[in-house]
Amino acid sequence: MPIRQLKASGVRNLQPLDLDFHPGVNFIYGANGSGKTSVLEAINLMAAGKSFRTSRLQHVFSQESDRIEMLMAIEDETLGECELDSLRLKGGDHLLKQNGSVLTSQADASHWLPVQIIEPTTFKLLAGSPEERRQFIDWGVFHVEHAFMEHWKTFRKQLKQRNSVLKQKEDEWLAVWNKGFIESATAIDQHRRDYLKRFKPEFERILTQLDDSIDVTLAYYPGWEKDSALSDVLERQKERDMVLGYTQSGPHRAELRIKVDKQPAAEILSRGQQKTVVAALKIAQGSLFQQESGRRTIYLVDDLASELDEKHRFALCKLLEDLKCQVFITSIDKEKLNDIWQPAASKVFHVEQGKIREDEPGTD
Q: How far apart are CA 95 and CA 92, in angstroms?
């Protein structure tokens, strides 16, 4: 069972909660504004250190509290058991522990919680900035390529130093920092290429099962001219970089281009089709992660009925059931969930004015 228990207080309008989850499907239903999405938000806050609803974490805090406290018990079939403990203050301080020992990196907690989110704004993965799609790629690489995080940390340091040299116009130091920058950039680029080579056929397979009428292509752009060596690109751009005071090319500018008939998918597809494609991307990533690690992704599915018709909702639920992973899925209407998906084993939670209770088996 991935997430066995969650205790939390200070999260939005939620009353302090202590929930025992099902290892399979967890339905959460309630009226708009009741707090059902906030349960998913709390899980993602522990998993990623951020909210999927807002970039300002202050908005996640309850009006009555200056702190968010969470405790999560995890049972991973490969990694074993652990307890994550988080104390987050409204002023910005954050203390994160694993089995009582302080963690210095959010990545350590994220490793235990491979969480994917499917929610009404996920079409931003197609229509949003390249950063959205870089983060998508890097989620997959991070969870299957153990060396990636160290290469990424090294690259961020190299990029910061190179930009500092550019701002200070210290031309004589540029060649020194270029060497390390190119080495770490090349390693990151290779990790991404290797991952996407394996990911593309899995995505195509999943998209066909969701909707075989949508034909989408994925193209990777490394962040510099694809037919040129990064060293040559940096040399050509040196004077311009010096004027701008930052590095124009590198893996921090990489892009996953998602197209239909050679046009950006976001400009061609309807919002419903966009969400179908995004759902395929997310499920394919979880499926590949499971194949390569032997572990299972945790899916947070918020407002299933939004912009997906019954046919696509049914296909999505079937794919999630086939993965045999832990799923948290919200809806306003309990009956709509049951009509679409009746897994062999599940738990149902009702949220009303911030209070959460588990429905008894057979409760209508």
A: 10
- Take residue 11 and report the two structure tokens written for it: 């999260």
Residues of the chain with CATH 3.40.50.300: 1-114+297-364
| Strand segments (E) across the chain | 3-9, 17-20, 25-29, 67-76, 80-89, 94-98, 101-102, 115-118, 217-221, 255-260, 263-264, 298-301, 326-331, 346-352, 355-358
Instruction: Burial-class residue 361 by CB neighbours within 10 Å (0-12, 13-18, 19+).
Output: exposed
**Exposed/middle/buried for residue 118 (C-beta within 10 Å: 0-12, 13-18, 19+):** buried
CATH 1.20.1050.90 segments of the chain? 128-294
CA–CA gap between residue 43 and residue 38 (Å, rounded):
9
Distance CA 1, CA 21 (A): 9
The fourth-level CATH superfamily of domain 128-294 is RecF/RecN/SMC, N-terminal domain (1.20.1050.90)
**What is the Cα–Cα distance from 304 to 312, expressed in whole angstroms?**
10
Instruction: Quick: pLDDT tens for 106-124.
Output: 999 999 999 999 988 877 8
- Look at domain 1-114+297-364 and name its CATH class: alpha beta
What gap in Å lies between CA 146 and CA 294, rounded to an integer?
14
82 forms beta bridges with 74
The tens digit of pLDDT for each residue in 61-83 reads 998 899 999 999 999 989 999 99
